Input
Amino acid sequence: MNAHATVDATTTDWTCFNVAIEDKVAHIQMKRPEAMNSMIREFWRELPAIIRDIDDNARARAIVISSTGKHFCSGMDLAVFTTPAPNAPATPPADRHLAGEASRYNLRALQDTFTCLDEARMPVIAALHGGVIGGAVDMISACDIRYCAADAFFCIQEINIGMTADVGTFPRLCKLIPEGWVRELAYTGRRMPAQTALRIGLVNEVLPDHEAVVAHALATAREIASKSPLAVTGSKVMINYARDHTIKDGLDYIQVWNPGMFATSHMAEAFKAKAEKREPDFPDLAPVRRGM
Output
């Protein structure tokens, strides 16, 4: 049985998010502007549930993540650090080594919250504005495409509170921008402005304001949604694989992928639609099950 089959991301009343699907595009919007959309405990449970529901049930062909208020996201809510989780043991292990081993698995759960963006079958586009701080940098680093408003800034905040970023910033950011920039941001905690982020390739484009960046992200998502979902997900799989492997490994993997996924019927529909001057009609991805 699919563990997420009972969750419908579009009808569930989420604490941290609004979810809407239109034109085969899912729009996930953070909705706690009064708290600068900080990542409270519910955030870490809700985001993967939403993404996996959309992904597993093929509810959309592209996903846009945006936010509300002055800032995109201020990162991890301090209460997550200072208050025990509801299911935490009453007495933590006295042995620091045992406590450390358990902490590793707790951290993995946080990392998986953003890994699900990287592993989703459909592209994920981040529409950013204001502060993109701390854990928000971890999150947007796992997205496929990033656009930002002119007022956006990016900050690896963890160094400013005496800790090392640990939810995905370094493994992913080092693949996105030059290492020297990662080091400068990580060591100093400085704010990187939007135009610098554009210049070094962290974002694809800078738009004038919040409204414009969301509109641009949704327009790009609709354009992606008009393409063959099978070809799009195949492209995402290949790009991710190429990122994590050698050129030789990537070439070998696509030799295996393409014979199984090469859809001549989808290509025929693309050619026919072009000849008839209409939009092609491609089938959606099939729903999948995570376990029995």
Observations:
- The longest helix spans residues 96-119.
- The longest strand covers residues 17-22.
- Residues 1-5 have pLDDT under 50 and may be disordered.
